[in-house]
């Protein structure tokens, strides 16, 4: 194989890897406000969805993580800013109290191995 | 009166090559003595009668050619050849990486397994885990260690058997232990994340080694601590105990699937059920890992060994970088850079 051809192929492949990593699939947001409480639901299975959620600041907020036959990394959730580290049940809902979030301070959740993450922005 | 010849030898990628070439050449009746200098890549041959050096080189090359070696009077332009191999290896390695990440992203592996965890379900979870993101760390480590062992050693089969046995036994025993003492030893996230980072560094180092970025036996790394850790690692690499211990250590490597099953073992509440759940899981991961280690061994002894080692090196470096960045993100040191 020609060296120049190889280099061009290599560059193409590197760009492709970049596209794979950055292209996220974002599904519908699910933020609900009921009786003055804000509920943010995030599905945890083979990653978190939605990956980015926009929510309101200044409201008592609960984060609900839904698992459904989740065995992969997204079941072992770490949210450092509130000191949450737990392995979620394989199937079920886990409610996490976020208190009253301030505007501009996002909540960042990652799985134990760090390859899946989600972010909730408050404004 | 004996006659001495010195030839340049190409294709020597491992310490075992020396033994193999010497054995083959010694089988020839007219050869009295053979000695190989791996560092200089030269062969010194003593024969009974005088011959034309060029002809002798040709005759002997025919004998060792099936194993991927060649003798020549003149030093072949090795540098150019090396470059070619690495430029082939990089795209090959990248293609494998892309296939792997596409597989992850496709979500094929995310089908649910409902209900209670039985040994059967944990076997299936193990099968899925062995081709999932867990392959980044556990598989990457197995691939890099296997390739390295095949490169250095003659008896790689024994090493692999020990590794896989160690892995199966330790999963069963630790599973049983989790069943008995339950929550007393919670699985510590920070601990596993740090282990993951160490594993990714080992992978990066082995990967660089496999691609031959550093010339053989002259691995120089900046920083004294690294060098110390790795020299210890190299020393213990070949003993019987080490593959067993590394197999044991894979229990603690960060892998979401392993952690889920560990939790299941904890909640199982008895030694036997803990054993059966964890053992079934390890058994499920076995086919893929065996394929990786013995597959790399069979390539390592074939004609395309240099290309295989370099491609494997590229794959391992890619997985290592991925695991390293993910590990840092998991510890909260950097923001997650990517999502798959």
From TrEMBL, chain A:
Protein's UniProt keywords contain Transmembrane: yes
Native source species: Candidatus Nomurabacteria bacterium RIFCSPHIGHO2_02_FULL_42_19
Ranges that cross the membrane: 6-24
Domain of life: Bacteria
Name recorded for this polypeptide: EfeO-type cupredoxin-like domain-containing protein
Keywords: Membrane, Transmembrane, Transmembrane helix
From TrEMBL, chain B:
Keyword Transmembrane helix on entry: yes
UniProt keyword annotations, A-Z: Membrane, Transmembrane, Transmembrane helix
Domain HMA: 3-72
Membrane-spanning intervals of the chain: 85-103, 123-147, 159-181, 187-208, 244-265, 271-295, 307-334
Signal peptide (residue range): none
Pfam family, one: HMA
Gene Ontology terms, MF aspect: metal ion binding
SUPFAM superfamilies, alphabetized: HMA, heavy metal-associated domain (SSF55008)
Superkingdom as given in the UniProt entry: Bacteria
The protein's name in its UniProt record: HMA domain-containing protein
UniProt lineage: Bacteria, Candidatus Nomuraibacteriota
């Amino acid at each position: 194989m020609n060296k120049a051809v190889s280099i061009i192929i290599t560059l193409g492949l590197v760009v492709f890897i970049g596209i794979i990593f950055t292209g996220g699939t974002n599904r519908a947001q699910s933020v609900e406000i009921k009786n003055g409480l804000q509920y943010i639901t995030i599905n945890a299975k083979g990653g978190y969805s939605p990956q980015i959620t926009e929510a309101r600041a200044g409201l008592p907020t609960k984060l609900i993580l839904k698992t459904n036959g989740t065995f992969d990394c997204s079941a072992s959730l770490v949210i450092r800013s509130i000191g949450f580290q737990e392995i979620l049940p394989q199937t079920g809902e886990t409610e996490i109290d976020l208190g009253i979030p301030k505007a501009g301070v996002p909540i960042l959740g990652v799985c134990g191995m760090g390859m899946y993450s989600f972010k909730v922005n408050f404004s | 009166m004996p006659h001495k010849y010195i030839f340049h030898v190409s294709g020597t990628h491992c310490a075992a090559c020396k033994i193999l070439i010497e054995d083959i050449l010694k089988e020839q009746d007219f050869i009295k003595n053979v000695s190989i200098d791996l560092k200089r890549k030269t062969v010194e041959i003593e024969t009974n009668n005088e011959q034309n050096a060029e002809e002798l080189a040709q005759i002997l090359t025919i004998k060792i050619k099936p194993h991927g070696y060649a003798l020549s009077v003149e030093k072949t332009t090795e540098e150019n050849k090396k470059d070619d191999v690495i430029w082939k290896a990089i795209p090959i390695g990248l293609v494998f990486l892309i296939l792997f990440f596409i597989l992850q992203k496709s979500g094929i592996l995310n089908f649910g397994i409902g209900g209670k965890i039985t040994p059967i379900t944990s076997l299936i979870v193990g099968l899925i885990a062995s081709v999932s993101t867990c392959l980044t760390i556990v598989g990457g480590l197995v691939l890099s260690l296997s390739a390295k062992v095949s490169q250095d050693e003659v008896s790689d089969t024994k090493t692999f058997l020990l590794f896989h046995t160690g892995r199966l036994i330790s999963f069963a025993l630790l599973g049983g232990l989790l069943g008995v003492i339950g929550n007393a030893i919670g699985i510590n996230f920070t601990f596993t994340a740090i282990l993951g980072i160490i594993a990714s560094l080992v992978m990066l180092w082995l990967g660089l080694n496999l691609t031959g970025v550093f010339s053989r036996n002259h691995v120089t790394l900046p920083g004294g601590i690294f060098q110390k850790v790795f020299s210890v690692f190299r020393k213990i690499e070949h003993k019987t105990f080490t593959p067993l211990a590394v197999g044991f250590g894979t229990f603690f490597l960060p892998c979401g699937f392993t952690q889920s099953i560990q939790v299941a073992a904890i909640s199982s509440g008895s030694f036997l059920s803990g054993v059966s759940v964890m053992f079934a899981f390890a058994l499920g991961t076995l086919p893929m890992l065996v394929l990786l280690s013995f597959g790399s061994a069979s390539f390592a002894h074939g004609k395309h060994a240099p290309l295989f080692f370099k491609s494997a090196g590229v794959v391992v470096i890619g997985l290592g970088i991925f695991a390293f960045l993910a590990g840092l993100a998991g510890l909260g040191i950097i923001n997650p850079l990517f999502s798959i």
